[in-house]
Design goal:
- The structure is a homodimer of 222-residue chains.
- Chain A is α/β, with parallel strands linked by helices.
- Chain A folds into 2 domains: 74 residues, Arc Repressor Mutant, subunit A; 113 residues, NAD(P)-binding Rossmann-like Domain (Rossmann fold), CATH 3.40.50.720.
- The first copy, chain A, has a 7-stranded mixed β-sheet, sandwiched between helices. In chain A, strands 1-2 form a two-stranded antiparallel ribbon.
- The N terminus of chain A is likely disordered.
- At the A-B interface, helix 1, helix 5, helix 6, strand 8 and strand 9 of A face helix 1, helix 5, helix 6, strand 8 and strand 9 of B.
Chain lengths: 222, 222
């Protein structure tokens, strides 16, 4: 049950993608635990809740530092703070959204962003009927004003919620305007501009994970 | 470069979640390759494109069967078909969406679902002003008609796109109406009804993966 003291010189930059993905799951579960009144958790218990081994939990976290206490486990608040520092979400990130169709509007209102430190402060569109309006508290600007607003509001992250056919040109404009990170919802492969990171969201992947499970269960029932 | 002949008795049900997740990535990349005119691909090349080792690719696929040909690699069309069979997406799945706010409307129009075998055939709401209408080709029914429509249209999958406060009760109703798989977009923990699988979509996780990368890159620049 004692948490590991391994890796004296951890290097977060060495962490594989899968580890960083699990780090989000640890964070979310720790936030649930705190909400339910828990102050500490062992790697065994944390792993069990998420379906990982305790060794996996300890090995993943060891990329980022030494967080466990022998005989205690992890202190939830402390580990939450540490993980948020690793993600850079211990501070709030102003975010721009490009495209104010149903998806753009839904994302501006998405509570899951607010809760984790992402605040959509500006929306962009090219439709004159929409420019000048607002979605919740985010004003809708013309895409031509992207560079100016990005600089004024110190925006580093942007979400692409435009039709597939416009996604690459929007990504290029975002790169040129100094955006560091792009989340792409358009169901099309987009090349990241130089100096920007990009994550593509493919919602069909989540559906495939679901049907895999459904097919597996129906096979077991037979 | 020869593809492995390992695992004579693969069992898909043994595949860990992470493997099933990567299977979606393989499928999507193979679909891109075919679109670009490629007929075959080696595990080395497929892994390289996605940032995995060739051993990883072969080990993952070995859970599901033996797909490689010595000296050739994988035949793209054949492997696409095999993976779609594994996911059950070699046929079309009719899907119900619950909640016709911005998110629900966006998801009905999401091209990424259509492309991969998911067709939203019915939407549900409790707002009398919306019931009787339609989003694209999906009629909007009252939630009280859920069970009847699910049976009539043989719907096995449903997407929850309602406010967080209503998510659990909607999940319970979905379970009771015979739905096998639920994709939950509400930013709240929902317990799956008995006999149904559930996948929760947490869009903030994608943002965290992005900021991790952005923070790492800005550290490297210093």
């Amino acid at each position: 049950m004692a948490e590991s003291k391994s890796k004296s010189n951890p290097n977060p930059a060495d962490a594989p993608k899968a580890v960083v993905g699990r780090l989000s799951l640890y964070l979310r579960e720790l936030q649930h635990l705190v909400r339910d009144g828990h102050e500490t958790i062992s790697s065994t218990r944390l792993g069990k809740i998420l379906g990982f081994s305790d060794a996996q939990v300890r090995k993943d976290l060891a990329y980022f530092g030494q967080f466990g206490y022998p005989g205690i486990g992890y202190r939830c608040h402390e580990l939450i703070h540490a993980i948020k520092q690793i993600f850079g979400t211990d501070r709030q990130w102003p975010v721009a959204i490009i495209g104010t169709g149903n998806l753009g509007r839904a994302l501006v209102g998405y509570k899951g962003f607010d809760n984790q430190g992402f605040k959509i402060v500006a929306a962009f569109d090219i439709d004159p009927a929409k420019v000048g309006g607002a979605i919740e508290e985010a004003p809708i600007h013309h895409l031509d004003d992207l560079e100016r607003i990005v600089q004024e509001k110190q925006i580093k992250l942007a979400i692409i919620a435009v039709p597939a056919s416009a996604a690459q040109s929007v990504a290029d404009r975002l790169g040129a305007s100094g955006i560091d990170g792009i989340l792409n919802f358009a169901p099309v492969t987009v090349t990241a501009p130089p100096n920007a990171s990009m994550v593509g969201v493919d919602l069909a992947i989540e559906m495939e994970q679901l049907t895999f499970d459904v097919v597996k269960r129906s096979g077991e029932k037979k």
